[in-house]
Amino acid sequence: MLDSLVTSKTRVKLLLKFFAHANSGYLRSLAKEFDESTNSVRVELNRLTDAGLLLAEDEGKTKVYRANNSHPFFSEIKGMVTKFLGLDELMEKIVKRMGNVEKAIIVGDYAHGVDSGTIDLILVGRDLDLVYLDFIVNKTFEKINRKIRVRVLEESPENLAGILVYGK
Description:
Elements: H1 2-5, H2 9-20, E1 24-26, H3 27-34, H4 38-50, E2 54-59, E3 62-67, H5 74-85, H6 88-97, E4 100-107, E5 118-126, H7 130-144, E6 147-153, E7 163-167
C-alpha cells in the first residue's frame, strides 16, 4: 500500500521510523537498523530533509534526524503511516490496559515497509494482561484485516532491529 505510493524502500522505512512515533536517529544507526548502505540512507535522508519533512540537528559531531511536526503535511503523513501499520488504536488500547508496557517494537516485514498482511509486534514489560492482549489482537484483526503476532518479553533484547512505536 504505502510502498506502492513511495517507490524507494529506504524512504518507506524512514517514513515509518520517523512518523510512526516520535523517533529520532542518525545515519549510521539507521543504516544498521534497516540493513542498508549508509549511502542509500543518506540519499533518502537528504531528500526528506530537503522536502522539509525531516529536521536535521547537530548533536556534537553527529547529525540527528527527526520528523518535522510543523510541516504542513505532518498530520497527513503520520495518519497514512499509522493506518498503514494499523496500530494506532491497538497501541492506545494496549498501553492503557495491559499494565506496565515499557516498549512496543514492530519487527519483521512491516518494519521494512512491506505490507505482508501480518504485523509482528514485540511488547516489553512485566506482569502484562495476556488475556486482554489476546482479546485486543482479535478485535484489531477484525478492524484492520491484518494478523498480529505479539511476543511479550520482560526485558528489551540487545540489537533488536525494528521500529519503536511506544516507549524509549
